[in-house]
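> forwarded from #structure-qc
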């Protein structure tokens, strides 16, 4: 504490002593000292000094001397050298290895070296240099395709992805006065009722929602015989004259999407396919927006059947404003630009 700040504190402490000798309580002293405005001591400070003056009315008004000693350069270098070899060490491990007290180690890390401990980020895949370059190249192609489309053309872009949905979603937390009031939630297990949902959507809202039925597998046959026919039927229902003309499909590189059977069916239907880099959920609209949004909206809900769940998912998607869908397209382009700029690394 500087000499100036120390001097500024002496006057309020003298006032606290004076009012204490007059027999005022800490609460009343606080009321009397409101005239100091923003410089008025807190109730805790007033109470602490009042108790000191009750025990010794003429005690020193100076702050008590602080224990400890300055951190020397040798200690800092020891910690720095240890981190150079073991950057994942805890404060406890560093203290044991260097024979420096834990509090001192923590002070060196945070105050002297300006460090904080950060958790490692989860990534979908540890990318090779070749995969990063492929992400850059394909992101550039995808960005050029999207940027060259009008809003009317973007309405013909349909993106598809799959995700597991549970029939019951517990709330993640609640307001309460004690932790005991919050009901525990059970972690999902392998046998927890759930259904894989395939979602086709775009600016026109939900186009196709299909739940994988018992005994079915999500494979090329499922895509050819069920998913794509459902898409064709819905598009022809909505656009009987145009049909599939101008429809553009976007999905990831899962094996059922890229198989020869699927590519042949897309060719026969005349559906153009947008490029998508491998190992890239960070630039897939369903992953960075839709699935998280839907599952958040389902918190606290329980469904008896997968049909009830699918109906609610469809209603939630139908309620998403077109303006939000357009903002998702904008975010999609931003993410693609970012991936290109950072050389194919994941978007965070």
């Amino acid at each position: 504490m500087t000499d100036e700040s120390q001097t500024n504190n002496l006057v309020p402490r003298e006032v606290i002593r004076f009012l204490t000798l007059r027999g005022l309580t800490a609460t009343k002293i606080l009321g009397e000292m409101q005239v100091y405005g923003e410089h008025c001591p807190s109730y805790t400070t007033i109470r602490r000094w009042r108790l000191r003056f009750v025990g010794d009315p003429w005690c020193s008004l100076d702050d008590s001397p602080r224990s400890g000693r300055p951190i020397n350069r040798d200690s800092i270098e020891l910690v720095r050298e240890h981190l150079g070899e073991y950057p994942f060490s805890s404060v406890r491990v560093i203290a044991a290895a260097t024979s420096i007290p834990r509090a001192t180690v923590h002070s060196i890390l945070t105050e002297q070296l300006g460090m904080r401990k950060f958790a490692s980020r989860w990534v979908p895949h540890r990318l090779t240099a070749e995969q990063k370059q492929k992400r850059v190249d394909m992101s550039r192609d995808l960005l050029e395709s999207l940027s060259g489309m009008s809003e009317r053309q973007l309405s013909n872009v349909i993106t598809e992805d799959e995700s597991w949905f549970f029939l019951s979603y517990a709330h993640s937390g609640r307001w309460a006065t004690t932790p005991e009031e919050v009901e525990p939630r059970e972690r999902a297990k392998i046998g927890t009722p759930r259904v894989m949902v395939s979602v086709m959507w775009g600016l026109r809202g939900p186009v196709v929602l299909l739940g994988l039925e018992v005994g079915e597998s999500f494979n090329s046959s499922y895509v050819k015989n069920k998913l794509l026919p459902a898409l064709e039927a819905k598009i022809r229902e909505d656009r009987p004259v145009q049909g599939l003309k101008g429809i553009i499909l976007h999905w990831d590189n899962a094996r059922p999407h890229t198989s020869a059977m699927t590519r042949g069916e897309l060719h026969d239907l005349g559906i153009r396919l947008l490029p998508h880099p491998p190992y890239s959920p960070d630039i897939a609209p369903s992953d960075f927006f839709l699935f998280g949004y839907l599952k958040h909206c389902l918190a606290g809900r329980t469904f008896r059947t997968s049909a009830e769940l699918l109906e609610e998912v469809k209603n939630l998607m139908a309620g998403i404003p077109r303006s939000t869908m357009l903002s998702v397209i904008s975010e999609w382009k931003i993410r693609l630009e970012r991936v290109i700029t950072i050389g194919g690394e994941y978007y965070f």
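QC bot note: Residues 193 and 324 are 31 Å apart (CA to CA). Residues 73-112 form one domain.
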